[in-house]
């Protein structure tokens, strides 16, 4: 059994957190490949090392006093090293970093040092081999991941290791230029390592016990999702639930490797399993509820629209020409409604309306703003009768007016449009009917 274990910044913020991580890794022999992030916040209001590195590099570019910030960063690592009683020093590395900052070798290089240094500390602490991500994660000339090359390099290098630490978040181009993923990208590194070594499991350790059924800012202490499929997760993340970097899904999904989201501060919690498919019945009919405010609807009406071939394409063409993506397009016999993000749409509103008039000569166009969309997602809905009925009676009881309903034939989700001001109440009502009353 081989596991890749990735630890986020809050799991590695100080020596105490490192010790928890050490205990977790040592408690299972299969945890052989470790991907660390840079040290995160130690307390509310603290600054992540990655952010300090960006500021430090920017100060160096402006001829500012970057050495002071670099000292602050160094002391963060020294505090960890001392707290773990390691006889190990990063002095030489910091000397090199200072020279490279002076020479302004790149912002990505600067940011990547957070993971690089933390990887070195982690390897020394665990007695694992350190594998520099610059040697095994390959980016192309344009800064995009070269997944094939990466898979080969990683596979070859790691096949020689009994266990290893590969720092997250960065890699390098063929010419050695260090390049990072977007923020939160250590998740992606973990996924690439898991794919390359053909891991049995990719454990992603963070500071929450998995994905929650809904947003804890709306519902107090929501239940944790035990198992979620990649498709369900996609439907939920699309509405803004972010625990895992989006690009971390693809490499492991293709290989059928499950991801387990775990909590470093509560290692006994089982967390959430993300899997390709499962015959395990979900605990509740729905897996999750996610949503977002700030949408606009554009309702286009024209009699006999249903027999006018190409009508929909032309309408969507107008949005495409203006560079606006659409969220949903429910339609009636003579109506078609397009839901878009309000902030993207507002400044181009008049061009869109003019374009629609020009291309399809509608009878009229009506717009409404300040709408919220809620996605109720669950593989269990397909085999359960009455789900939609329960949702709508719960919303009626909560006095929420439903503006739009959209269910795809996958029966994996039901999208509901409500007014912004009803958003929280609607989410609460749906949660209560499916989860609270089932507990
Ligand atoms: N340290 C990087 C960030 O703060 C990458 C990561 O943590 O995954 O975004």
TrEMBL record:
Any Pfam family matching the protein = ACT_9
Q: Which GO terms describe its molecular function?
A: aspartate kinase activity; ATP binding
Reactions catalysed, semicolon-separated, are:
L-aspartate + ATP = 4-phospho-L-aspartate + ADP
Annotated InterPro entries: AceGlu_kinase-like_sf (IPR036393), ACT-like_dom_sf (IPR045865), ACT_Aspartokinase (IPR054352), ACT_dom (IPR002912), Asp/Glu/Uridylate_kinase (IPR001048), Asp_kin_monofn (IPR005260), Asp_kinase (IPR001341), Aspartate_kinase_CS (IPR018042)
**Its EC number(s):** 2.7.2.4
> So which residues are the signal peptide here?
none
Binding annotation for substrate: 50, 115
User: Is Cytoplasm included in the keywords of this UniProt record?
Assistant: no
Pathway, per record? Amino-acid biosynthesis; L-lysine biosynthesis via DAP pathway; (S)-tetrahydrodipicolinate from L-aspartate: step 1/4; Amino-acid biosynthesis; L-threonine biosynthesis; L-threonine from L-aspartate: step 1/5; Amino-acid biosynthesis; L-methionine biosynthesis via de novo pathway; L-homoserine from L-aspartate: step 1/3
CDD domains given for it?
ACT_AKiii-YclM-BS_1, ACT_AKiii-YclM-BS_2
Q: Does the keyword Transferase apply?
A: yes
Looking at the record, the residues that make up the ACT domain are 376-439
- Residues that bind ATP, according to the entry? 6-9, 206-207, 217
The protein's UniProt keywords, in alphabetical order, are: Amino-acid biosynthesis, ATP-binding, Diaminopimelate biosynthesis, Kinase, Lysine biosynthesis, Nucleotide-binding, Transferase
Q: Give the UniProt entry's GO cellular component terms.
A: cytosol
Entries under SUPFAM superfamilies matching the protein: ACT-like, Carbamate kinase-like
* PROSITE patterns in UniProt: ACT, ASPARTOKINASE
Described by its record, this protein's role is as follows:
Catalyzes the phosphorylation of the beta-carboxyl group of aspartic acid with ATP to yield 4-phospho-L-aspartate, which is involved in the branched biosynthetic pathway leading to the biosynthesis of amino acids threonine, isoleucine and methionine.
PANTHER family cross-referenced by the UniProt entry: ASPARTATE KINASE, ASPARTOKINASE 3
What the record says about family reads: Belongs to the aspartokinase family.
Question: Any idea what this protein is called?
Answer: Aspartokinase
Organism in which the protein naturally occurs: Blautia segnis
Q: What is the lineage of its organism?
A: Bacteria, Bacillati, Bacillota, Clostridia, Lachnospirales
């Amino acid at each position: 059994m081989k596991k890749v274990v990735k630890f986020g910044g809050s799991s590695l913020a100080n020596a105490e957190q490192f010790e928890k991580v050490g205990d977790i890794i040592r408690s299972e022999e299969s945890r052989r490949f470790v991907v660390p992030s840079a040290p995160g916040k130690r307390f509310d209001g603290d600054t992540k090392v990655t952010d300090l590195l960006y500021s430090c590099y920017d100060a160096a570019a402006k001829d500012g006093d970057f050495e002071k910030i670099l000292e602050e960063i160094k002391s963060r690592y020294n505090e960890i090293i001392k707290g773990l009683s390691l006889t190990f020093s990063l002095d030489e590395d910091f000397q090199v970093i200072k020279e490279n900052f002076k020479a302004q070798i790149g912002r990505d290089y600067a940011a990547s040092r957070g993971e690089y240094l933390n990887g070195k500390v982690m390897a020394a602490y665990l007695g694992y081999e350190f594998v520099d991500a610059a040697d095994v994660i390959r980016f192309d000339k344009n800064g995009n991941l070269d997944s094939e090359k990466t898979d080969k390099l990683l596979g070859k290098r790691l096949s020689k290791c009994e266990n290893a630490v590969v720092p997250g978040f960065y890699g390098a181009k063929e010419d050695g230029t260090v390049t990072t993923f977007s923020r939160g990208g250590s998740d992606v590194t973990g996924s690439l390592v898991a794919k390359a070594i053909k891991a049995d499991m990719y454990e992603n350790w963070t500071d929450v016990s998995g994905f929650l059924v809904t947003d804890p800012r709306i519902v107090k202490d929501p239940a944790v999702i035990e198992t979620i499929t990649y498709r369900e997760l996609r439907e939920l993340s699309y509405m803004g639930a972010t625990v895992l970097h989006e690009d971390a899904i693809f490499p492991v999904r293709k290989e059928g490797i499950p991801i387990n989201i775990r909590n470093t501060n509560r290692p006994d919690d089982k967390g959430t399993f993300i899997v390709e498919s499962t015959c395990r019945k979900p605990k509740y009919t729905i897996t999750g509820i996610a949503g977002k405010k700030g949408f606009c609807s554009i309702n286009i009406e024209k009699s006999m629209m249903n027999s006018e071939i190409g009508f929909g394409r032309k309408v969507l063409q107008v949005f495409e020409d203006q560079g606006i993506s659409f969220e949903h397009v429910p339609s009636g016999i003579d109506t078609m409604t397009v839901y878009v993000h309000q902030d993207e749409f507002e400044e181009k509103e008049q061009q869109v309306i003019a374009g629609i008039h020009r291309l399809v000569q509608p009878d009229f166009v009506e717009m409404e703003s300040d709408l919220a969309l809620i996605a109720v997602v669950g593989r269990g809905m397909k085999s359960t009768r009455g789900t939609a009925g329960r949702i709508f009676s719960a919303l009626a009881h909560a006095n929420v007016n439903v503006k739009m309903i959209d269910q795809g034939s996958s029966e994996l989700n039901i999208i509901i449009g409500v007014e912004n001001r009803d958003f929280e109440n609607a989410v609460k009502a749906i949660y209560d009917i499916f989860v609270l009353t089932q507990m």
